[in-house]
Amino acid sequence: xxxxxxxxxxxxxxxxxxxxxxxxxxxxxxxxxxxxxxxxxxxxxxxxxxxxxxxxxxxxxxxxxxxxxxxxxxxxxxxxxxxxxxxxxxxxxxxxxxxxxxxxxxxxxxxxxx
Length: 114
Fold this sequence. Notes:
The chain has helices spanning 2-6, 16-27, 44-58, 71-76, 90-102, and strands at 33-39, 64-69. It is α+β, with helices and mostly antiparallel strands. The protein has two domains: 1-30, no CATH class; 32-102, no CATH class. Strands 1-2 form a two-stranded parallel ribbon. Helix 3 (44-58) links the parallel strand 1 (33-39) and strand 2. It is elongated, with a radius of gyration of 20 Å. The relative contact order is 0.11.
């Protein structure tokens, strides 16, 4: 994340602690939304560390962290607000797939559909 925010690529030589410290400093005076997608790590100590670091900088500016994960991980994290999302119905999934493959509103060609 720090590399994306700063554009610096020298982070490979830094420890995790130093990298997190730099990220906290970069975000301290900013309002931000961090989205973590497909999180599957249920290690409580890792999340407690991340939570501690981000609570230090987020509370006064209205910043948020959104984690997309499974129910078990959300429970382990003691998430303050959870939304259960159902998958798309088969018909909608197929329509979304066709729109992406063939273009919106265009008919699929018979030789590409089995």
